[in-house]
Amino acid sequence: MTRVASFGLFVLWVGIIGSCNTAGSEKQKIKEYYNLDSLISKQIMKLAENNARLYKKAIVNGDTEEKQMQFDSAGWARELTLFREADLNKPAFSNAYSVKKGEKDIHSNLFMDIFTPVNDEALRIKVIRIYYLNEINSIKKIEIVKEEENKLFYSSLHIILYFDNFKKEVALQSYLIEGKQKLRLKDTIYYTVEGRITYP
Known about the structure:
Elements: H1 3-19, H2 36-49, E1 53-60, E2 63-70, H3 73-79, H4 81-84, E3 97-104, E4 111-117, E5 125-132, E6 139-149, E7 153-166, E8 169-183, E9 189-198
Antiparallel strand pairs: 1-2, 1-9, 3-4, 4-5, 5-6, 6-7, 7-8, 8-9
Helix pairs in contact: 2-3
């Protein structure tokens, strides 16, 4: 498989992962959980207004493709769709997740808010961890784990978003996506996508 073909397949499958959550199509919002959708929306505006650039590296089953890109707000919205769709504030998720706040991360000086399913194994988002310094407004990292399995298909996805300060505000600095997909009677596809953002 050529590098271009591999990357094209990756884009296709990430699109499937992002769109397979039927609850994500509901327009009505609830306010039970952290508002990830709002955070990503603010990042999109910040990235576009500051003419940020993205260096993106994708590895699919050993084939690598690298690109440098610059987007307007619509382009950044498309680029960050996968992260935004992990927002839990949808009616279908009401009371579906437990929340632990202010947990100490044993590997750093950060605190965590942790969101996990109460008892529904069918929920695709298995955990969201939000890491912050002292208070939730000082976010440093967000970790998301998604899994889906049926008779024809299995996928797992591990996403990490890294944040720092830019102009005294929280700003997305980089992201990492690691995943695998297995279709019935097909080989397993392993992929990694790294994105690094630079501000002028």
